[in-house]
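User: Predict the complex.
Assistant: Input components as received:
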Amino acid sequence: MSTSKSVSVKKLVKIFDGSGGKKITAVDNVSLTIEPGEFVTLLGPSGCGKTTILRMVAGFEIPTAGDVFIGGDRVNTLTPDRRDTAMVFQSYALFPHLNVFENIAYGLKIKKMKSAEIKAKVQNILGLVGLSDLETRSPNQLSGGQQQRVALARALVMEPAVLLFDEPLSNLDAKLRIHMRREIRKIQRQFGITSIYVTHDQAEAMSMSDRIIVMNKGVVEQMGTPKEIYATPASQFVADFIGTANIIPSTVTNTSDGSVEVSTLGTRFHVKTQLPLKHGDEVKLIVRPEAVALSRADGIPAEITSSVFMGSYQDYVIAAHGQSLLIVDSDPANHETFEAGEQVFLVIAPHKLHIVK
Amino acid sequence: MNIIRRNLDELRMILRDPMLAATIILVAASLVLFILWPLYEVLWEGFVTDKGTITLQYYREALAKTENLRTLANTIWLGIFVSTVSTFVGFLFAYADAFLRIRFKGIFNMLAILPIISPPFALSMSFIMLFGQQGFVTRTILGLKETNIYGFEGLATVQVLTFFPVAYLVLAGLLRQIDPALEEAARNMGASRGHIFRTIVLPLVRPGIANAFLLVFIQSVADFGNAMVIGGNYNTLAAQIYMQAMGNYDIKGGTALATVLLTVSVLMFVIQKYWVGEKSYVTVTGKPSRERELTSDPLPLFFVGVPCLLISLFILVLYALIPYGSLVNLWGIDYTPTFKHYQYVIDIGLKPILDTTWLSLISMPITGILGMVIAFLIVRKKFFGRGLIEFSSLLSMAIPGTVIGVGYVLAYNKEPLILTGTATIIVLSFVFRSMPVGIRAGIASLQQIDPAIEEAAQDLGASSFKVFTSVTIPLIKSAFFSGLIYSFVRSMTAVSAVIFLVSASYNLLTVSIMSQVDGGKLGVAAAYSTVLIIIVLTVTGILKLLLGRMGVDVSDVQGG
């Protein structure tokens, strides 16, 4: 096993030629570092530049400016075949003319490994992904999930310094996706391979990553652990993209060290923040749906506009002070439920609130 | 600034991979050397005097001659007439193929293959055998003494019968793509069959009709063989270039005409590729959800199905006349069976047969590999000059053979490349004449393959060369081998360019056949033609058998 390596990109820029001579800046001055053995997700909507970064690390695209380092070595001019990376493709990209065994053995053969060794390695990896009995099948005889495993095995067997995942689960159905999420994470931990995972699915990012890098329009919006990103989003975009958020316009009415007082929804909240704010600043209050409880007794007056039973939770839309809020009661069996049209009161836990500019 | 930076990026990308860089340079050099340079020679030759001064004299002379102007008018009128009729007939066949419940549809595809595997002027020969001075119809049945099949009527009819399958293939492809659900939706809203045809089917294939028209037009104006054999006094550019350059030894006059013909063809090609070719409504509707319910209404059966079957039968008879004619004593007069024409072929003329076959076999792998490499570069690689490679390789499809023939004569009879009279020049002309079809097939099949598959291979450590040989080629092998077979067939039957290049040391089959027809020896010409067709069928049959054993499907080979 080759040892796991760090990956970093410095001031990376990629400009594509669009139609009609237009320049499209896909990646705009991005710098980031991924430690050896770390599982990092590049998360963002389509067109945010996450796949372009991945492809520059793999060597399929040449940076317009900036540098790519793998294990401290600058690899800008290395072709993909000479980089110690292995990619799992969105479309799996299995070789249709080769069977499962030959697909996985392809890279090993290029390394001129002895056939006995190849056989042992392929069988070992097939066992790991649970496909031992399918080695003579051709890719078109496999289900989507099985193809996905072959693609993973084909990358893993190379024992690369860096594993690259380009939305590998987006073609699977919801249940299988959740299952594969766990499998990939388990295997990655087992091998300790540095991994960069590209996805637009925030649940995937949350459940798998050591660290998430949220991207939008070619720039990094925020880097952090899943917890940090969820609890303290750096921008309205991140708050909105990760989970569900009620974004409520508010005005700063008082400031003190490490917290501010904001006015909104006809009341005032004390919220912890490190943002340099002053009296009168317009900010956005981020209220997660689970930060609000409904009560008949006391709080901010509101009216239920919709109430939907979702099985494990109850989904509400309420109106208060001209704002519309999403609220989730995650334990409806133990709480009183409300119907549309009912007048209620909102109880908001101040320690769950967060402020962005 | 940005352009410079982008080009530098591309340059760096290529330089990272010396094998790729070398390939690109080689391909570009070969296209420049064997397509663009001869064309440049043709264009330039008409502007310089023997002493090297620049002049417009030859063009002025060429365009001032009423004879030449009539030739140009003839060519264009013939093109318009033949394209119109061919498109109409092609549409009938396409309609019958897609909509009618009739038998023997397999014949339609055969009609498309026959002109490819036989000498390009085969139908002219058959026509002369039927309607010429010793024609079976004119002389044997009707007993006419004075008949003249040579001229516009004969040439136009033969061209229509030879080229309408081109229109048929284009239109049938389009009609097959129309989702029957569209027609059902219209019918559901109360439209009659005729109304649906006028308001749904016809508008959807309109771009295809323009496309078919232009493709036939390009073939008609470039047609050399039929014009020579049955054109008579109806002069066309393609034939006139040859007679001027080779018959009258007036190469300057020939190149002036060649420039005119080239202009017409390239213009049509550009219109076809960049204007009409882009327009297609059918793709918008996606793939048909299921197959169309075929109709057996008596009306369309009678007005479309029956004519199609009759035309098919007629064409089959025409082709059958060739082997038959090779087996009778003296066509039109004495139909006693004999092998004497074959005896004659064996006695005096085995060399053209062997030369043609060997040279075609040598060209075959060169064409196939070069074609696939070019297709790969065009579809998969970004580099400076890719547009030029794509354009010049596809352009050569539109260049009439006689023009390229003149170009080769001009370009390769002087330093630095003296090739006149060699086998090399013939192989080169075979390669660059039949390559565009291979490139097109390669491009089409590459575009259907996810580029990620090749990226995956490279990511796993394969070099560009290894990716090409271990992944790309296996994935497009059916297009590759189809290209090989097509290249062989096309080389065997080529005449328009190579007729300028044959010499005492290397004579070709098609050229021999033409001179036999010219000399009135129809029996010998028919025998040669039959031998040609047998060689083509045997070699392609063996290749298909071998490939079938290897599990390669080349059933789409006739498509070219």
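Chain A is about 25% helix and 35% strand.
Let me know if you want any component modeled separately.
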